[in-house]
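hi support,

uploading two proteins for the ticket. first:
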Amino acid sequence: MRKTLFAITAAASVTTACLALTACGPGGGGTDSHPSASASTAGQPSATASSPAATPGNGSGNGSGTSSSDPGTGQSALALGVPSRTVGTKLVGILEITPTTVVYTKEGDGTTARFGTFAVITTKDASLTANAADEEPASAGGTKGGWRWIAADGQSVAEGNGSASKVRVSGYDGVGRIEPGTSQLRSEVFDLTPDQAKGGGTLVYTDATGAENRWKIPAVDSGPQAADVKKRLAS
């Protein structure tokens, strides 16, 4: 009888200890078996896989940009002429995008800048995989896809704003899917105020994953195709 009472008392003591401590049973003891929420996202082809800006530029033509600072201002940016690899639209293929030239002009292709200055940037897009690839289509402000210009004061301006959508640079107007192993010359045009153009800016491309690619753009005409671009804009 004493042995039975002793066994019951011992079992009760163990049960009480298990209720007081979380170490009993799998996963107890304060050791969380769930994966960390900060798991690495390495492996994205974008060279600068940062979060897209929350403040969109005005691509409707009713204004030249926003007064809010771009959250990504201050992030590292590549130099003009340095390529960056990124995923194609709908996550198909890999693109290598290289901004090659920038030209500033008040008029281009018979159109006058609404806000003062066009910043015309040419790029070379190459498809690096067995699948044809294309750039992510432009979205509102370029924050969820496509291109935008970040001024020195942080204002964000979407490609094709103001009168920029009317400017076509012949020879640098490639569009559509790029076949494997081939490349296209393209151009992005921004209609900037004097303050937005002053001091150059940062060119941002947001890919299909929301990751950004950034390049620092000089404040003066630069790049190997500058003379050719000027000639084509004047014709």
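and the second one:
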Amino acid sequence: MMNDNKNNIFSNESAGVWINSETQNKVEEKERKYKQWIVNYRNKIPMIIKQVDEWLKRQEDFENIVEMFMDESFKKNYSNVNEMLAFYRAINIYMQEIGNGVKDTIFHKYDSFYKNIEYLTELKLQMWRAEFNIIPHAQDYLYNYIEETNTSIQTLVCMLCSVSMNSYEVTINLANLFLKHEKKVYAFEMFKYANEIKPGEEIVLCCMARLCLDIQLKEVARDYLKQILHPTKISETLRSLCEA
């Protein structure tokens, strides 16, 4: 019976060498693929950005940008690159804006690849400051930035989806902020999004119903009140106004 580990190909020492060799091979293969990716794709990024800038400046070839970035092969090779990933957010916003009939889209406002990224990065920072009260009057700064940049509802919803730690709470805070400044359409859309996140909340649906009543949409207001899962006396007054 052999007890000598030196002659045992399954000894711990031999197994360690085999495992290390296999690991080394995997590392080398990974490095080889990465170097090949740099040659085939990473080095082309400046050229891609230049082409995007040309399309943005023409103000008429936006669909070319969407087509390029939505191509499955393109996404596979570039969606994990930081600057590309950031620009995908701008594309998503543009598509949402077009779908909702917005004419002054993000691509109309920012005519370069990096301007789009800078705008969304600053908006993200402003939203974080407001969410965590990092600086005094953070919500006012956020509101002012939204006004100065004519930020669309679609942009806000997209950012709430992707950057907020508590999107429901932040959405409610934004809705109240817009109400404070009499920006009622924005307030309504924020409440609407909050209802999508957490359906059936009485206070949210009552706010939506109240805004509808302000413009004499009683039937719509009544429909929102019917969605309340656990109604209390809070909604009774609104129901009576709907019936008046």
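thanks. also noticed: Residues 12-40 form the longest helix (29 residues).
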